[in-house]
Design brief:
The structure holds two protein chains of two kinds. Chain A is an alpha/beta fold.
């Protein structure tokens, strides 16, 4: 133990010393995304593991028979090591190994555009917001034939859901791998947007009821006044990420504050079936005015406008940021692991979501219950894949329960244990191990951008993924989180945010349409220009010393983008989607 | 004088006969290789310019896309953003040219004045090393050094020049100077090498004569060094003028952010954004063609100006 500490200390010093500029206040360099993976000790021989699982009698592919595929994912992610243990097990069972590469330093559109221009396509691709470009360039293999051939793929969506993926030529080219539940839904997390706050802030304030922006910043201000530093570093009361497409952290809160769900680019006024622009509502002005006030009070990170995603994650990792507005998936998977590794979770650094609204007592829809189908992007097979049938067989194989368990639970006996009732569970050591980034790189292989299930396992008992296993969820909660949940009478994250439980319209989410817009149409041009204008002006508005005049300038620039063109096309799409429901 | 030179050339150029061709066979074959190389890699890609006059779609390709004439250019020139981008490119290009150019000459002359050979070599080596760093590293250093907790802000704060740190990358007026400074830092040492070489080739007897006539260091620089390297300066200036429009891509791409995009975006980034990100390859190509035209105009103007002033020129 002592030795470990000293080594860690030395390593830490070496890292700090190697930084060129004097960034003494910055986060420690060992955030999860770039942790060195080389120093791991291999836990078990891949060969032994297969013998333990009951499926070992199946055909095992030898190295010569294994096909290597490539995949590009239009999102940043961490690459796993070559020879990753679970990847090898899956390769032996399915005969396929996929090398995943992730987005680095570019926007998704640039990366996909470059791939198309060079003609050098990977076998699998997730084009993100640039998926439509892939379709238009005619480089994707239609799924239709294979959906019928492989039952695992077919059952992934209902026929109506599959139909939503059909492009204008009537074929299906991709399937979104996320938020799809098998059997009973077991949601324990809030994998959506929220204003987040650290448990320790709430505990300090005596767990007050926080409903509005004013109350939220009030608590942050008071806490900050008494606790200007944390572990020797200055506290940042509130930060805003606004890099590239992630600027939703800054721009889309007004739709939620008005009590609407995450349609992403517009509000749908359900009573009148009208598209409403949330950029120009009184709530939007109120929200940015509040941010401006807080900025001028010194409550908001001075560097927010120019920080990159990595810098943002590094800041959060120190535990010094008290709160921010963000999507859970955008930070929490990384941050929870980092906090656990550094012991910051026991100090109350974990974030809990708050369902803020413009006024007190309003209902909120920050949390979307059930599955959200985003048909604008997903997993696709390209025409440069030499054996598309094998590619689709692999997609199907990954949905087999034993392989799905390998992807998300890991190897039985190493990553999880099974009790007498057949329930999966993990020891605290296994949980710590699963949060270790080096271990993740050398051992864990989730193939996360391939089709994956949430909800209940095909055995009818366990959850498809550990974070949804009730026992795992509670055992994994740090003490301050448990106390916070208790204080608010919540059992899990959705209870904490307290969103209205309601069925969302067939049109939901509208962002799946705007994400796929191109500059071919006037609405698409307006959408692009609106994005650019907001990117530029919103930080300016927040940082301005005279809010009202800057807001007016912004509104002028915004209206020059002809948002009405965009809204008209969204209205058309809303009506089209609503009509399909009848 | 000129006429006599011409006559002389005529005399030594043999007439093209079959025999002569045969005699120069090897030379011709080698020349052909380079002509083919030039054609394949420099002229053939120009066929892609066709895209600028079409509504190009990767699906239909260059042969079957719809021909739209000058529509894309019309779009380009009616986009106020394009003019901002054009202005930024020219402004940063000129700023870079002037600063790196003057700094390189100044540095070469100063370096030449150093007596100790060891010192001179050391300074020279250190000064051109940054040239070998890629922009991603240079911008990383700049980013760290100029961040809120970076060296520069810390120095300014400790010297009480400012009360609160300066967010360098969110203020428009700082961007061009930062780019010019970075270019200077990176390229001065490297660019000075040519001038240093030119200076070393100056006949030492000239300096001796100047010493005898009572010329000091300043006089020697003014009357001997500078005039002697004038041809080098002119040629390099002309070459660089053609490059003004290549104000850079990486540095603006890496240092820019939406807050200061009005001053940071260059034509190259514009081409990337429209051509690659928005998949409007036609518009990107149109912007690229426009850029090439400006470049050609600049070179010709520079060259004819040099001609008018009777200076060294490219062609």
């Amino acid at each position: 133990m002592r030795l470990k500490k000293i080594t860690a200390l030395l390593l830490g010093t070496a890292l700090t010393a190697s930084m060129l500029a004097g960034c003494g206040n910055d986060a420690p360099a060992d955030t999860s995304t770039d942790a060195p993976a080389t120093d791991t000790t291999v836990v078990a021989d891949a060969g032994d593991d297969t013998t333990e699982t009951p499926a070992a009698e199946e055909k095992e592919y030898s190295e010569d028979e294994i096909t290597d595929f490539t995949m590009f994912i239009g999102m940043p992610g961490s690459e796993i090591n070559d020879g990753n243990e679970i990847q090898e097990i899956i390769a032996k069972k399915t005969g396929v190994r996929v090398k995943e590469t992730w987005l680095t330093g570019q926007t998704t559109e640039e990366a996909v555009g470059t791939i198309l221009a060079s003609g050098d396509l990977p076998d699998f691709i997730n084009g993100g917001d640039a998926s439509k470009q892939l379709y238009e360039a005619d480089v994707l293999v239609p799924w239709d034939e294979y959906i019928e051939k492989y039952p695992n793929i077919k059952e992934f969506f209902t026929d109506a859901e599959w139909d939503m993926f059909r492009m204008d030529d009537g074929k299906i080219y991709w399937a979104n791998p996320f938020t799809n539940s098998y059997g009973e839904n077991r949601e324990t997390g809030h994998n959506d947007e929220a204003f987040w706050v650290q448990c320790r802030v709430l505990e300090w304030a005596g767990y007050p009821k926080i409903e509005t922006l004013d109350e939220y910043f009030d608590v942050l201000e008071k806490f900050y006044a008494e606790n200007p530093t944390f572990e020797g570093n200055p506290v940042i009361p509130y930060t805003i990420l606004c890099e590239d497409w992630r600027y939703f952290c800054l721009e889309n809160a007004p739709e939620f504050l008005d009590g609407y769900p995450n349609d992403g680019s517009v509000i749908v006024d359900v009573d009148n079936m009208k598209i409403v622009d949330y950029n120009t509502t009184p709530t939007a002005k109120m929200y940015f005015n509040k941010l401006n006030e807080e900025y001028n009070k010194g409550m908001i990170d001075k560097e927010f406008a120019t920080q990159t995603y990595d810098e943002y994650i590094a800041k959060l990792s120190t535990g010094c940021v008290l709160g921010m507005c963000d999507q859970n998936w955008d930070f929490n998977y990384t941050i929870q692991d980092v906090f656990k590794q550094q012991g910051l979770d026991e100090k109350g650094c974990n974030y809990v979501p708050l369902g803020l609204t413009a006024e007190k007592g309003m209902e909120n829809q920050w949390h979307s219950y059930g599955d959200t189908l985003n048909n604008s992007s997903g997993l696709a097979v390209t025409t440069s894949c030499e054996d598309p049938d094998l590619a689709f067989k692999f997609i199907s194989d990954l949905l087999d329960q034993d392989i799905h368990d390998l992807r998300y639970w890991g190897v039985e006996g190493v990553d999880y244990l099974v009790d007498d009732d057949g329930m999966y569970y993990r020891t605290p050591e296994m949980r710590a191990q699963a949060a270790d980034t080096a271990y993740q790189a050398s051992h864990v292989c989730q193939y996360s951008y391939f089709l994956q299930w949430l909800g209940t396992s095909k055995d009818g008992k366990n959850a498809m993924q550990p974070q949804q296993q009730t026992s795992e969820f509670f055992a994994g909660l740090a003490e301050p989180l448990k106390k916070t949940f208790e204080a608010y009478g919540a059992e899990n994250y959705p209870d904490m945010i307290g969103s209205k439980v309601c069925e969302l319209g067939i049109w939901y989410p509208m962002y799946s349409y705007s994400n796929a817009m191109t500059t071919e149409t006037p609405g698409g041009v307006a959408w692009t220009k609106m994005g650019e204008t907001k990117h530029k002006w919103l930080p300016k508005v927040v940082m301005s010393s005279n809010f009202d005049s800057e807001w007016e300038n912004y509104m002028k620039a915004y209206n020059d983008c002809k948002p009405e063109d965009f809204l008209a096309e969204m209205q058309e799409e809303l009506e089209r989607r609503a009509a399909t429901a009848k | 004088m000129a006429r006599r030179k011409k006559e002389k050339e005529v005399n030594i150029t043999p007439r093209i006969t079959r025999k002569e061709l045969k005699r120069q066979r090897v030379l011709l074959i080698w020349a052909a290789v380079f002509v083919v190389y030039g054609f394949v890699f420099c002229y053939l890609p120009l066929g892609g310019w066709l895209m600028a006059f079409q509504n190009y779609k990767p699906k239909t390709g260059i042969l079957h896309s719809k021909y739209v004439g000058f529509d894309k250019f019309k779009v380009l020139f009616s986009d106020p953003q394009f003019f901002r981008v054009f202005r930024n490119t020219l402004a940063m290009g000129t700023l870079n040219l002037v600063t790196t150019f003057i700094m390189a000459i100044l540095f070469a002359i100063l370096l030449n004045e150093i007596r100790g050979n060891l010192m001179k070599k050391t300074v020279q080596t250190i000064s051109y090393l940054p040239h070998f760093l890629s922009w991603i590293i240079v911008t990383g250093i700049l980013h760290d050094a100029m961040s809120s907790s970076g060296t520069i802000n810390e120095i300014l704060l400790n010297l009480h020049v400012v009360d609160t740190y300066i967010p360098f990358f969110s203020i428009e007026k700082y961007f061009w100077p930062i780019v010019a400074f970075a270019n200077c830092w990176k390229e001065t040492g490297w660019n000075a090498i040519v001038y240093l070489a030119a200076i070393t080739s100056i006949d030492p007897s000239l300096y001796e004569a100047a010493s005898i006539d009572g010329g000091g260091r300043w006089a020697k620089i003014k009357y001997i060094t500078l005039p002697s390297i004038r041809p080098t300066i002119m040629i390099l200036l002309l070459i660089n003028i053609g490059n003004v429009i290549n104000a850079g891509f990486e540095i603006q791409y890496l240092l820019g952010n939406p807050l200061i995009i009005e001053v940071s975006e260059t034509i190259d980034i514009y081409v990337l954004r429209w051509g690659i990100s928005q998949m409007d390859w036609s518009l990107g190509t149109a912007a690229g063609i426009f850029k090439s035209l400006i470049s050609i105009v600049l070179i010709f103007t520079g060259n004819s100006l040099a001609k008018a002033f009777g200076e060294e020129r490219l062609f």
